């Protein structure tokens, strides 16, 4: 029982080294047959025992106890066993040495495991020390550094000798230590298994870097905490790049979401890849409704424009010719309505494929405004002709009424005198003169009706901003000007008080004055439109840098038919004065020092109250 309960292989020998007894573990470890062992010599089973072992046996039989912590023994098959052994003498009752007892314990598995562990440790140490971008170090259960790799030295600046045995609080600044952050991390890792955070780490030189750090709990096979491992990665540059990329992405997204132009991205097969918020608003489709679909759904008759395998980019054939060339196309909304668009297409390459980006601007308002501008120009030209004819008719009526009235008087007088005669000729003369008088009266009535027909009626007054009115009028004059390179300048602030005028008539006054100024200054000239407040009236001025007005015509400048133009009628300024005076204002001109002429006219001004703003 003693032999079987000893935690080792045991054999008992007599003084001749013959077996007296052995444990079952001995038989198992050395592959022996139990019944054939007892009484036989040790050397019969281990014939390879050398002189060293024979000497060990002699020394033990002489009373000496010998042992070895670890020794390698060669097996019969050529393999080796690692064995821990001890040999002790045993004594007879009378006190003499009866033989020896040999205790052995095979440690081959443990030794091999230890060797593998040491090899792995050497490889791991090499691997850890060659990690360039990571600091790896081990802590004991109290947080003291027990291993410090070369990456930690490079990252933190501390040598291994400076850190071993020191608490890792050394790697935190004073504020973190005062807040107990290192202790908190150890406690959390011990409780949860690991602790990870991104924070500033302290270097030996006092500088900081942004790090991604993981603190992991380490336990032995029995679950006992034996320390911690910490891996620290410098992410300063990575974080900077991420922030930069995120900022760029945010900026680009905000730009694309806020620009008024619709943006659509398609691939080489004309499938829509991106659809901006402005495109959603313009076409009435949501993003899920269009992604992956053919872009021709947004165009009118786009299918007819395809050119072989070349994608019909946004309904335009031959994309190689339209990239970077804005053009007008017709788009189709979700509800089926159409609209004119200005399309600009850009091309980009992503790896081995192409994508096309189309920027589309709605031309509806621009084209409507152009049409309205042309209509207004035509209307102003028509009104100008009507006013010219009206003024002419008024002048004619005024000048013809007196002679016509005289003719009527003379003819009627002749008719009265002829009535005194008695012959038939006198009667015929009376009838003819009476008829002539009637026709003269009829001509005067026609002229009077014409005068009444073109006479100015009631003014249609409205509240207008002088700066807006001046800019719109300049826009009307510029397209049709004889000198397109004349410079126009509207010198008025946006917060100027409004005026109460008939907008069309005052605009006609400005058109007339501006056209006269354009003809006066010629190519390269400059014209300025200004406004000055004068009590309850606003003075509008058109100032040019032309040669000025000749003194010969200056006094009669506003008279009908007074003109210096070879083809002019001399009615424009006369009409302008009549319009201005109908508004309760005055129109006059003066020379500009250094050359040029300034025409001024006044119109009623509206004084805004506190907190009141312009309708524009």
TrEMBL record:
Instruction: List residues of the PAC domain.
Output: 191-247
Q: Does the keyword Cell membrane apply?
A: no
Q: Which domain of life is it from?
A: Bacteria
| Coiled-coil spans in chain | none
Which Gene3D superfamilies does this one have?
Answer: 1.10.287.130, Histidine kinase-like ATPase, C-terminal domain (3.30.565.10), PAS domain (3.30.450.20)
Q: Which PROSITE patterns match?
A: HIS_KIN (PS50109), PAC (PS50113), PAS (PS50112)
From what organism does this protein derive? Novosphingobium sediminicola
Q: Which CDD domains match?
A: HisKA, PAS
Show the taxonomic lineage: Bacteria, Pseudomonadati, Pseudomonadota, Alphaproteobacteria, Sphingomonadales
Per UniProt, the enzyme's principal EC class comes to: transferase
Domain PAS as annotated: residue spans: 120-173, 248-303
Output the InterPro entries linked to this UniProt entry.
HATPase_C_sf, HATPase_dom, His_kinase_dom, HisK_dim/P_dom, HisK_dim/P_sf, PAC, PAS, PAS-assoc_C
The name on file for this protein is: histidine kinase
The record's Pfam families line, in alphabetical order, gives: HATPase_c (PF02518), PAS (PF00989), PAS_4 (PF08448)
* Molecular function in Gene Ontology: ATP binding; phosphorelay sensor kinase activity
The residue ranges of the Histidine kinase domain are 395-607
Which keywords does the record carry?
ATP-binding, Kinase, Nucleotide-binding, Phosphoprotein, Transferase, Two-component regulatory system
EC number(s) on file: 2.7.13.3
Which reaction does this chain catalyze? Answer: ATP + protein L-histidine = ADP + protein N-phospho-L-histidine
Provide one Gene Ontology biological process annotation.
regulation of DNA-templated transcription
């Amino acid at each position: 029982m003693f032999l079987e309960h000893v935690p080792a292989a045991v054999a008992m020998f007599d003084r001749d080294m013959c077996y007296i007894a052995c444990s079952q573990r001995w038989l198992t470890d050395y592959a022996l047959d139990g019944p054939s062992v007892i009484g036989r010599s040790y050397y019969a089973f281990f014939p390879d025992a050398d002189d060293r072992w024979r000497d060990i046996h002699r020394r033990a039989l002489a009373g000496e106890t010998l042992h070895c912590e670890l020794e390698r023994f060669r097996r019969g098959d050529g393999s080796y066993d690692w064995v821990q052994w001890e040999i002790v003498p045993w004594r007879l009752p009378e006190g003499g040495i009866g033989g020896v007892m040999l205790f052995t314990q095979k440690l081959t598995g443990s030794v091999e495991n230890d060797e593998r562990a040491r090899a792995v440790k050497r490889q791991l140490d090499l691997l850890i020390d060659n990690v360039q971008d990571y600091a790896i170090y081990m802590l004991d259960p109290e947080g003291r550094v027990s291993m410090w790799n070369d990456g930690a030295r490079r990252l933190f600046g501390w040598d291994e000798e400076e850190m071993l045995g020191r608490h890792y609080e050394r790697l935190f600044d004073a504020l973190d230590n005062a807040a107990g952050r290192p202790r908190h991390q150890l406690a959390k890792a011990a409780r949860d298994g690991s602790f990870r955070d991104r924070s500033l780490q302290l270097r030996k030189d006092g500088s900081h870097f942004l790090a991604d750090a993981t603190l992991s709990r380490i336990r032995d096979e029995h679950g006992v905490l034996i320390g911690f491992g910490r891996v620290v990665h410098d992410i300063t540059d990575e974080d900077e790049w991420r922030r930069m990329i995120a900022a760029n992405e945010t900026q680009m997204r905000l730009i694309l979401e806020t620009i008024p132009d619709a943006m659509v991205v398609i691939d080489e097969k004309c499938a829509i890849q991106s659809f901006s918020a402005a495109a959603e608003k313009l076409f009435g489709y949501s993003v899920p409704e269009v992604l992956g679909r053919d872009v021709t759904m947004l165009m009118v008759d786009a299918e007819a424009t395809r050119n072989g395998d070349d994608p019909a980019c946004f309904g335009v054939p031959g994309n190689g010719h339209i990239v970077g060339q804005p053009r007008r196309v017709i788009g189709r909304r979700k509800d089926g309505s159409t609209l004119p668009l200005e399309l600009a297409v850009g091309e980009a390459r992503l790896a081995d494929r192409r994508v096309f980006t189309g920027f589309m601007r709605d031309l509806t308002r621009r084209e409507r405004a152009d049409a309205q501008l042309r209509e207004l120009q035509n209307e102003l030209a028509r009104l100008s002709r009507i006013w010219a004819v009206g003024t002419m008719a008024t002048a004619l009526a005024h000048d013809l009424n007196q002679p016509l009235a005289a003719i009527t008087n003379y003819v009627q007088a002749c008719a009265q005198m002829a009535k005194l005669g008695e012959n038939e000729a006198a009667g015929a003369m009376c009838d003819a003169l009476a008829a002539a008088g009637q026709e003269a009266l009829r001509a005067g009535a026609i002229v009077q009706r014409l005068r009444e027909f073109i006479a100015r009626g009631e003014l249609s007054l409205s509240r207008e901003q002088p700066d807006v009115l001046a800019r719109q009028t300049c826009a009307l004059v510029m397209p049709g000007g004889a000198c397109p390179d004349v410079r126009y300048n509207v010198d008025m602030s946006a917060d100027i008080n409004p005026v109460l005028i008939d907008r069309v008539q005052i605009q006609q006054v400005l058109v007339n004055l501006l056209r006269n100024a354009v003809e006066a200054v010629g190519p390269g000239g400059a014209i300025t439109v200004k406004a000055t407040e004068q009590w309850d009236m606003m003075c509008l001025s058109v100032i040019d840098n032309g040669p000025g007005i000749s003194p010969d015509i200056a006094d009669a400048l506003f008279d009908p038919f007074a003109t210096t133009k070879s083809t002019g009628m001399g009615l424009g300024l006369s009409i302008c004065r009549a319009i201005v005076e109908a508004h309760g204002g005055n129109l006059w001109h003066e020379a500009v020092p250094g050359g040029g002429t300034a025409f001024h006219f006044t119109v009623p001004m509206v004084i805004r109250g506190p907190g009141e703003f312009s309708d524009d």
